[in-house]
Every structure is written in structure tokens, then in C-alpha cells.
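User: Um, any thoughts?
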Amino acid sequence: MRLLGECRGSIDTVRKMGCELKEEEEGGAGLIDPSSESQTSGVIERWELLQAQDASRQLRRKQSQQQEQQLTSDLLKVCSWLEGAEEELQQQRRLEVSSDIQDIQQRILKLKVALL
């Protein structure tokens, strides 16, 4: 960012010099290189392009960081859910096998809820 600030100062200097050269040219000095105006505008265009590219990179970096944070959040949620599901399955394994249909249905319902 410091480099961009320094370049911005240089661009301002180039613009100021461009204006001064233009004034001298209009004043009839006759010593002005006609290509200097195109060089000045070329430098300014290049600077503006660099600024746009930098803004684009910063936006992509910010989006990437947001995606990384979302992925981390999603992974934590999945890990938490897996731990809960594992605990529920272990509890079900410890229970005695039942032949009562209502007991089996309750266990199935409890597992369905745990897996959702």
C-alpha cells in the first residue's frame, strides 16, 4: 500500500508537469516534445489500469477469505453433528435388543431425528 501511495504522488507530479508543459507549448516556447503529451496520458492510463487490477485482486482475496471462513464453519458443524450421531449410535448399541414393536419404532424415530 505504501508503494501505491508513492506511485500516486508520482502520478500527481506527472500530471502537474504535463499541465506545465502544455502551458509552455501554448505560450509558444517551441521546445516541447509533441510526444510528451501522449507519454503522459500513457503513464496515467497505465496507472489507472494498475489501480483497477489491484482493486480486483483485493476483491478476489476478500471473497476467498469469506469462502474459507464459510468452509471452516461448515466443517465445524459437520464434525459436531457427527459427534452427536456417534454418541446416539453408541447409546443405541448399549440397549438390550427388544422384540417390542413400539420400542423398536421409538428407537428408529430417535435415530431418524439424530441423523437429521
